[in-house]
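Customer ticket, subject: "Can you confirm the structure for Methylglyoxal synthase?"

Message body: Hello, I'm evaluating your service for our small team and ran a test protein. I'd like someone to confirm that this is what the system normally returns, since I don't have a reference to compare against.
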Amino acid sequence: MLKIAFIAHDRKKDEMVNFITAYEHVFTDHQLYSTGTTGQRIMDQTKLQIHRFMSGPLGGDQQIGAMVAQNDMDLIIFLRDPLMAQPHEPDISALLRLCDVQGIPLATNVATAEILVKALDRGDFAWRELVHKYKPGLDQQGDVK
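Agent reply: Thanks for trying us out. I re-ran your input and got the following:
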């Protein structure tokens, strides 16, 4: 079971809902997280249960970023709107940077998201389970030392 986060800027929320609806079967066995409105919109259109953080501009990006910083997130689908300035751009940049630091797969458009979700469906993310199993402070069984 992987931890997957969904984030979508306002003009990308419909696209996110359509995408998640199309691949709902892939996400059902994973722990799902999202920023506030995006998560609610997904839950309204699917049977998925999502832990919702605050709205992105109110700190939701940072809440997801905190999980990334702890290497406690496995995949992020973040549909960004490159044509609209965002008031919380520093938070977005920090989240993208943290994903690079921790090696967390991150899709910022539907084309990349589809490639990652198809890989997820094939089981190509098994390597993330090893990341969790051998985290500092855990023994080889994943228990606290």
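A couple of notes from the result: The chain has a mean pLDDT of 88. The radius of gyration is 15 Å. Feel free to reply with more questions.
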